[in-house]
């Protein structure tokens, strides 16, 4: 998920949150973490005592690699994910509050599914341009228009970014924005878009009907416009001198989210 380990306070807060487990659930988690030889399953040992043992193990070797159903990850990350599963939306439970604050300091936030359940962690986005709000609005608008394919690609891009898989994130972002314009074209001109053989042709259609503004250089005939420039930037692969893969992948994510919101809002407003 990240190149630097989670900090000690966050790991400890995660372990403390795991005290909410029952004996049976805690023992199952120990098996998933591969620590059954070090932490007894006996019910004569309280969950709090077991958490104390788990905390000492995690702090001693947080970078130990585990094989899990979600892929390979460090012991520290696995414990963080286990704790996230206990989080409840809008809860003011002190242990959860401490855990959430620790995640925030480390650059992560808790997120829930559409039903307010099944919490997971996601890389936090910069607050100065309201990226969390933008992310949420984009998801809601995609669902409103039933744009299933773009929604899936965006979800995969964000998950890849959270894992630190920059190449996968970059690829999914380009596919997301391409499929988004495809679906917008099909939404506003279903018959005409069906006759256009490529995604670029469908974007040209959006310009022809005025959805993409030529006077603001969103689309121009010479190809020197914002949309084409965005696709050229998203198409590039590999490292960039003086710029880390993480920074550039995050930059792409931010640009794509803001761009998607702009055109989804335009669609929602019927312009």
Describe the overall structure.
Strands 1-2 form a two-stranded antiparallel ribbon. Helix 1 (8-17) crosses helix 4. The protein has helices at 8-17, 23-33, 47-60, 75-84, 94-106, 131-144, 148-163, 166-188, 190-194, 199-208, 226-235, 245-268; strands at residues 65-68, 71-74, 108-111, 120-123. The radius of gyration is 22 Å and the shape is elongated. The protein is mainly α and 271 residues long. It contains 12 helices and 4 strands; from the N terminus they run H-H-H-E-E-H-H-E-E-H-H-H-H-H-H-H. The model is unreliable at 238-243 (pLDDT under 50).
Strand segment tally: 4
- Shape, per Cα inertia axes: elongated
User: Span from first to last CA?
Assistant: 40 Å
The assigned structural class equals mainly alpha
Estimated radius of gyration: 22 Å
Helix content: 55-70%
Strand content: 5-15%
Please work out how many helical segments DSSP would assign. Answer: 12
- Reading the helices and strands in chain order gives HHHEEHHEEHHHHHHH
Integer average pLDDT: 87
Biggest β-sheet strands, sense, barrel: 2 strands, antiparallel
Unreliable spans are 238-243
Task: Give the spatial strand order of the biggest sheet.
Answer: 1-2
The gist of it:
This protein is mainly alpha-helical and 271 residues long. It contains twelve helices and four strands. Helix 1 (8-17) runs antiparallel to helix 3, helix 1 crosses helix 4 (75-84) and helix 8 runs parallel beside helix 12 (245-268).
């Amino acid at each position: 998920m990240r190149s630097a380990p989670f900090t000690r306070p966050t790991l400890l807060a995660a372990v403390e949150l795991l005290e909410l487990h029952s004996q049976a659930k805690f023992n199952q988690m120990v098996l998933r973490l591969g620590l059954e030889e070090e932490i007894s399953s006996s019910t004569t040992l309280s969950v709090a005592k077991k958490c104390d043992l788990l905390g000492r193990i995690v702090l001693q070797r947080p970078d130990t690699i585990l094989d899990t159903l979600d892929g390979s990850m460090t012991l520290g990350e696995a414990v963080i994910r286990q704790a996230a599963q206990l989080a409840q939306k809008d809860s003011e439970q002190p242990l959860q509050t401490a855990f959430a604050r620790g995640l925030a300091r480390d650059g992560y936030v808790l997120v829930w599914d559409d039903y307010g359940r099944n919490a997971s962690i996601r890389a936090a986005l910069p607050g100065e341009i309201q990226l969390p709000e933008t992310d949420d609005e984009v998801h809601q608008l995609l669902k409103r228009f039933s744009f299933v394919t773009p929604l899936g690609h965006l979800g995969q891009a964000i998950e890849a970014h959270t894992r630190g898989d920059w190449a996968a994130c970059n690829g999914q972002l380009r596919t997301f924005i391409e499929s988004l314009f495809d679906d917008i074209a099909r939404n506003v001109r279903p018959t005409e878009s069906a006759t256009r053989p490529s995604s670029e042709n469908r974007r040209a259609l959006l310009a022809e009907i005025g959805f993409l503004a030529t006077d603001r250089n969103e689309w121009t005939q010479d190809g020197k416009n914002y949309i084409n420039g965005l696709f050229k930037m998203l198409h590039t692969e590999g490292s960039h001198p003086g710029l880390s893969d993480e920074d550039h992948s995050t930059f792409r994510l931010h640009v794509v989210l803001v761009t998607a919101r702009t055109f989804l809002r335009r669609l929602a407003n019927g312009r």
